[in-house]
Design goal:
The structure is a homodimer of 340-residue chains. Chain A is α+β, with helices and mostly antiparallel strands and 340 residues long. Chain A has two domains: 9-152, 60s Ribosomal Protein L30, Chain: A (2-Layer Sandwich), CATH 3.30.1330; 164-332, Alpha-Beta Complex (Phosphoribosyl-aminoimidazole Synthetase, Chain A, domain 2), CATH 3.90.650. Helix content of chain A is 35%, strand content 24%. In chain A, the strands form two sheets. In chain A, strands 8-10-7-11-9-12-13 form a seven-stranded mixed β-sheet, with helices on both faces. A six-stranded mixed β-sheet of chain A has the order 1-2-3-6-4-5, covered by helices on one side. In chain A, strand 2 and strand 3 form a beta hairpin. The longest helix of chain A is centred in the middle third of the chain and has 18 residues, at 105-122. At the A-B interface, helix 1, strand 3, strand 4, helix 3 and strand 5 of A face helix 1, strand 3, strand 4, helix 3 and strand 5 of B. Chains A, B: Mg(2+) 5 binds at residue 236. Chains A, B: Pathway: Cofactor biosynthesis; thiamine diphosphate biosynthesis; thiamine diphosphate from thiamine phosphate: step 1/1. Chains A, B: Mg(2+) 1 binds at residues 52-53, 130.
């Protein structure tokens, strides 16, 4: 009898761990393989960065409310964000596309309009890919190649005790945007004559539908002369991604609820949907902001950058991440995050 | 009213042409974007090569007869083959995987066993990727990064009149292997007690299930001091891929039926299934052999390499590809190939 182990018994992270355990780089120019936002390749003068992601209709996006142009933009931005998270400069991207015959040529045009716009915004070239047919909706994979000066690379596993923890932009918006869009979809499905109630919610909707990769901050850190001691992009959520940094660096962290940057619209949407705004900020993914650490000496150099918020610091308590709440209690964070 | 144009009205190549028309590289280090086996990136001393492909269950492979270990191997080999087709050396690959819960952990292990074996055989590192869930079977995308010395790169669009046309290995085997496997599947579905009749067909079955990327020939050309004047890998089929070289180089070609390298098992299977062996060689895809041109002066340097067959030559008749049959007639080749 063959053994059959269900993937669900391991979970997604368990499966990935199992896969990764058996894989070891062997080439001298593979500086870093699996386990960071991008693989790192020694190109001599510089490091090359290589990353890839896949997005499936019905799993990662819902085309009943996701405009194809925005989807194209978001997928390129997601690839770029992984390069940004290494403190790198993206250069080239490739796209694989699988389409069912439900899609028209005009729909494909829309998707590529969004991709081309993102390529222009982030100054990258779309240099290749594969187009094929699908029996099950739209599937897109993106790969991105970038470069970084060797001394400027930021890994996940190099945070040091007493480093300061920073995030860019604001958190939880993409998650709240998704909740609102899904609510409106339910309303519409129940009664197609209902108009969507999204007035005054444009910012969080945009956070979901058209996120930006924070290349602006990568450039501003360079101008400020600051190299993050570690960095990751916030695709899974602050709690989960901070735990990655801590686990891989062998450190802990303390973050302060009152320091979490949350937009007014995120607060309003959270209140309307009865979700804690801090929960959205901690657990909500897809913000594509950067989470990074800097040494204390960098504080003066970036404290006036309005795009950067100091949310806590790194400790030597390996793997322990603690949230100091507004009510002054201390709550351990898990990958599932924190429920107020 | 919005216009709706069906993708089928353009066809796969038409759609790809439409997409590509609107995409132009803008960065100085993008040497070659869409339109070759891999994108070419200027790394200073050398060129970097970047390529990607996607494979979907039910479209590109049938798991009722495709062992997962072989599938893993084949997908890595397909990525490597695109690097080989630029006369490059593959270094790193990434894999994205989408799985439905029909797959067990053991099945995923099998798939990765095949990938790891291919990585070892082709001396590349598996450096990253994404694992996600799917509602519709198995989807895999592969990206490969490689390098090539600038003076050694082989493009598709640089064949010259009077160059000699070469192929590696033999042709049509992967296609005949697929036909046999599909026949046995039909037999089995009609009567599950029937045993498969695949005795003496191991070579063509292997050509379908476990193709090799021809890195061996890339290294042997280097040892011989020969740089192909153009090159492409045979994934779509000789006719289609030769037409790519001719169209992109602005040249024509003459090939000789009697020169087509076809294995004995391919002949036997073709005869058994009432398919012309030359048709299989011309139209059958997935052989992952290399089709390349060399200047006449290279002839002496590689004529004794048993892996290389000279099948014809390049002419100045733009876009015209002619097959000289064994019966001494001359037949124009189209992308759909040739039916004897």
């Amino acid at each position: 009898m063959e053994t059959r182990t269900e993937i669900s018994s391991l979970g997604e992270f368990g499966l990935i761990q199992r896969i990764n355990k058996g894989i070891r780089p062997t080439l001298p120019d593979t500086v870093r393989g699996i386990g960071d936002d991008a693989a790192v390749i020694d190109l001599g003068e510089e490091f090359g960065l290589l990353t890839t992601d896949m997005f499936l209709e019905g799993i990662h996006f819902d085309l009943t409310f996701f405009p194809l142009k925005h989807l194209g933009y978001k997928i390129i931005a997601a690839g770029i964000s992984d390069i940004a998270a290494m403190n790198g400069i993206p250069r080239q991207v490739t796209i694989n596309l699988a389409l069912s015959n439900r899609f028209s040529v005009e729909a494909v045009d829309e998707l590529y309009e969004g991709m081309k716009l993102a390529c222009k915004d982030f100054n990258v070239d779309l240099v290749g890919g594969d187009t094929t047919s699908s029996r099950s909706g739209l599937i897109i994979s993106v790969s991105a190649f970038g470069k970084v000066k060797k001394e400027k690379i930021a890994y996940r596993n190099t945070a040091q005790p007493n480093d300061l923890l920073c995030v860019t932009g604001d958190l939880g918006g993409a998650y709240m945007g998704l909740q609102l869009l899904e609510r409106e979809k339910q309303v519409f499905m129940a009664n197609p004559n209902m108009q969507p109630e999204l007035d005054g919610k444009d910012y969080v909707i945009q956070r979901q539908l058209r996120p930006e990769a924070r290349m602006d901050v990568v450039y501003e850190l360079e101008e400020a002369g600051v190299i993050p001691t570690s960095m990751i992009d916030l695709s899974d959520g602050l709690a989960s991604d901070l735990l990655h940094i801590c686990a891989q660096s062998g450190v802990g962290a303390v973050i302060f609820e009152e320091r979490l940057p949350i937009d007014e619209q995120t607060y309003l949407a959270a209140s309307e949907l009865n979700i804690g705004a801090a929960t959205a900020a901690l657990n909500g993914g897809e913000d594509y902001e950067l989470l990074f650490t800097v040494s204390q000496s960098a504080y003066e150099l970036i404290k006036n950058n309005p795009k950067i918020t100091f949310i806590g610091y790194i400790t030597d308590k390996k793997g322990e991440v603690e949230l100091h709440t507004k009510g002054d209690s201390r709550v351990p964070l898990t990958a599932q995050g924190w429920n107020a």
